[in-house]
Amino acid sequence: MSSKADKSLEKKCIRSFTEYCKKFGYKPFARQKEFHDSRAKYRLFGGAAGPGKTKALLYDAIYQAHLHPGVDTLLLRRTFPELESSLITYFRRDVPRDLYEKYNEAKHIVTWLNGSTTRFAYCDTETDVYRYQGAEYLFIGVDELTHFTLKQWQFLTSRNRCRIKGAKPCMAGATNPGNIGHAWVKALWVDRAPAPGMDRPDQYDAGDYEFIHATIADNPYFAKDDEYKKTLGQLPEALRRAFLDGEWDVYAGQYFDIFSAARHTIRAEQVQLEPWTPRWISIDWGFEHPSAVYWFATRADGVVVTYREFVQNRLSPRMLAAAIAERSVDRLGRMERIRDVFLSPDAFAQRTADASIAEQLSDGLSAAGLPRAVPADNDRVGGWMLMYQALEADHWLIAENCTRLIENLPTLTRDPANVEDTLKCDGDDPADSARYGLKSALEPGRAPAEVLAAERITAVDPTSRAIWLKKFSAEESRRVAPVVPRRWRPQGW
Ligand SMILES: Nc1ncnc2c1ncn2[C@@H]1O[C@H](COP(=O)(O)OP(=O)(O)OP(=O)(O)O)[C@@H](O)[C@H]1O
Ligand SMILES: [Mg+2]
Predict the structure, then answer these.
(1) Hey, whose CA ends up nearest to atom 6 of ligand 1?
(2) Could you give the percent of the chain with pLDDT greater than 70?
């Protein structure tokens, strides 16, 4: 670019935040202004639902893009539909057309009059973040930051740089408390401490971080909206405190404080199970509340993988059985060899007709060639403990497509009345189902049959290993088969 062009773009930059607000017709609320004024390298606008976090993040990106000519800024959300319904919608609705050069619909990139850009982007899977490798951004804003992992945030910090003299690269997040990133976000900004899972905790500098806490009262429109406040007021306790007051301690006493998406999740394409890999299913039955179904397998190295999820409400037992059967096929369309189906014990007591929910569901499953359901082990304390131990020992991985479970685990809190148990709350069906699946199939303190088999089998060629593994697993599972009342025993036990 010629220096003449440089100069003309330079002239289109904006010198002060006041001038910027005037030009863009943006009137930040007091708490938004506090967020924009902060000079911290990493800012977090966190708290309740509705104080104007997303809007402030968008206007911060636009402001940063106008400080220097030809710089790039990036705004992220976890999925494209979320991105489109929030940041992109606000941009289209609120930014006058004459204030930007062009908007590339396919790439979702706005080019401003001074040659700078703002890119709207998303990261569906954890590794999508690497799409931005090679790029450099003066500003990176992440909306709903707790939907992201620490690993993603850390990678993005490496893209936050600018070659222009005097430019000050910075990043910001906007978020409600809760979700998979709750623990690391809270640690860095709220507790001002290194986050669990950080490679170099000694490198953490609290001075780089500033937390701007917002409640519903910070948006004057919502503060006066009694109907909206009433709706939030009717939410379950933890959500109400998080969304109405923006409280970060509602998830204090987080049960799975050890859970890290980076460490405990795996991409669906990496799961790679052999046809003979032992598999089983867990079901937490629900009608108004969703039924949560998980598929499990033990890999040859002994690691249990939860590889498929199905969560849906208002399905009859027979419809649920059909939905499970339809999904119990491998990539080649072959029926998977499911060894057991563990179902929430209450489904054996509940009846909608002459038959119990469990009987109706089992009839549907067996008609489709799957085992009949047996009552899951409902030892809550033992089950949570087993899950914790499995995560701690890296014996349990969850495929990234099990999104509801991955979101649910970090939000479970200890029950103050019984700290060994978790507090029951709406929306914990995925975790309950996973607990049934692990607790019913694995014995606490004892490795699953397949782990023992994998340890004892010395053959290295895959065919011999498979034959030995099958033989050993069959012997072991006969030896340690869970004790199930005779009338519930499926055929062949
Ligand atoms: N400064 C402002 N002036 C006028 N309207 C605003 C302002 N800031 C936010 N709003 C409006 O208030 C509403 C809520 O804002 P926004 O979506 O940014 O809040 P949020 O904190 O991100 O909410 P959530 O927690 O639901 O994501 C939106 O309709 C937005 O356009
Ligand atoms: Mg928002």
Answers:
(1) 52
(2) 87
Give the containing element (helix H, strand E) for 319. Answer: helix 317-327
Residue reference for tokens 């993988």: 305
Helix/strand/coil for 429: helix
- Per-residue CA distances from 218 to 47, 317, 421 (Å): 10, 46, 36
What digits encode the pLDDT tens for the residues 58-93? 999 999 999 999 999 999 999 999 999 999 999 999
Q: Which domains does the chain have, with CATH numbers?
A: 3-251 (3.40.50.300), 261-488 (3.30.420.280)
What are the CA-CA distances from residue 94 to residues 1, 302, 460, 461 (Å)? 31, 54, 63, 63
Quick one: DSSP state of residue 107? Answer: T
User: Which amino acid makes up residue 201?
Assistant: P
SS3 state at 258: coil
Please choose from 26, 32, 55 the residue to mutate so as to test ligand 1's pocket, defined by most ligand atoms within 8 A of CB.
Answer: 55
* Kind and range of the H or E run holding 46: strand 42-47
Ligand 1 residue neighbourhood (C-beta within 6 Å): 27-29, 32, 49-55, 176, 219
